[in-house]
Specification:
alpha/beta, binds NADP nicotinamide-adenine-dinucleotide phosphate
């Protein structure tokens, strides 16, 4: 899909990957509609022309308001980027269930709800792209954030299923699986800390701009899956071929083996 002149609605655009996507898509000529809780962050990311909606994506009302305002201002939505998300470093066997539910609400139900609000308009206009920002952890479970991986694996399955549900309608879906990206994600987690070995890997992390560029390119070429950096595919392949070795190594990093 060509980006120039398209209306793009981005969730979680007040910082990190979402803010970088706002800048990347605006530079390619897109019209922006942005939602997150921090209004000032949205204004900084989007500049004076962006439509900004301050709201919490765990609320039905805020999700609907973002979509309604976008349609009122621009009359259409061409690209939906479901990017807002949060992590938690806590073993799943002792995590309070309300935390697990919160993670599912923001990382899975919010993208589902946004898609349910936007897809009918995209179907009516016979075109659209739904981009879900998952994680490499949705492809290979990370034991230091099992529940987070669960939410991203669910998002992965949703994206694949919707691709087939919407086939022939002109609406495409794409899953993005970033590895380590240098954002505030680690400090914004709901609880816990990154294992030391994972923290050390931060020097290999890509910038949010690199991630946003990969997303923009993925939309342009109608990709099904974007793994960024591409070396993430090696981990996916290693897990398929040698699961017990990879699981043992992951448990060691987690400090549980
Ligand atoms: N950084 C990584 O290494 C990495 C790796 C793989 C995947 N990802 C995924 O990439 C996406 C973006 O992460 P990031 O690294 O850019 O993290 P980030 O810097 O923490 O940004 C998260 C964004 O989500 C928004 N957000 C969080 N809770 C929200 C809520 N309840 N309602 C509305 N907006 C909310 C935040 O805005 P407000 O606080 O203003 O609401 C912020 O704009 C996430 O889905 C994450 O899981 C990140």
């Amino acid at each position: 899909m060509r980006i120039d002149g398209k209306v793009v609605l981005i969730t979680g655009a007040s910082e990190g990957i979402g803010a970088a996507c706002a800048r990347e898509f605006a530079a390619s000529g897109a019209k922006l509609s942005l939602i997150a809780r921090n209004e000032e962050g949205l204004r900084q990311a989007g500049g004076p022309d962006a439509l900004v909606t301050a709201g919490d994506l765990t609320s039905d009302e805020a999700r609907r308001r973002a979509v309604d305002r976008t349609l009122e201002r621009y009359g259409r939505i061409d690209i939906l980027i479901n990017n807002a998300g949060v992590g938690i470093y806590q073993p799943s066997w002792e995590m309070p269930l309300e935390e697990a539910r919160y993670l599912m609400e923001l990382n899975f139900f919010a993208p589902l709800a946004m898609t349910q609000l936007v897809a009918p308009h995209m179907r009516a206009q016979h075109s659209g792209a739904i981009v879900n920002v998952g994680s490499i952890g949705g492809k290979v479970v990370l034991p230091w954030m099992t529940l987070y991986s669960v939410t991203k694996a669910a998002l992965n399955a949703l994206t694949e299923g919707q691709r087939m549900e919407l086939m022939g309608s002109g609406v495409r879906t794409m899953i993005v699986c970033p590895g380590y990206v240098q954002t505030g994600f680690q400090k914004n987690v709901r609880a816990g800390h990154t294992p030391e070995q994972v923290q050390k890997a931060r020097r290999w992390a890509i910038s949010p701009e690199t991630c946003a560029e990969a997303i923009r390119r993925g939309v342009e070429r109608d990709a099904r899956t974007v793994v960024t950096p591409r070396s993430g595919w090696l981990l996916v392949l290693a897990m398929r071929l040698f699961p017990s070795i990879v699981e043992g190594r992951m448990a060691k990093i987690n400090g549980t083996a």
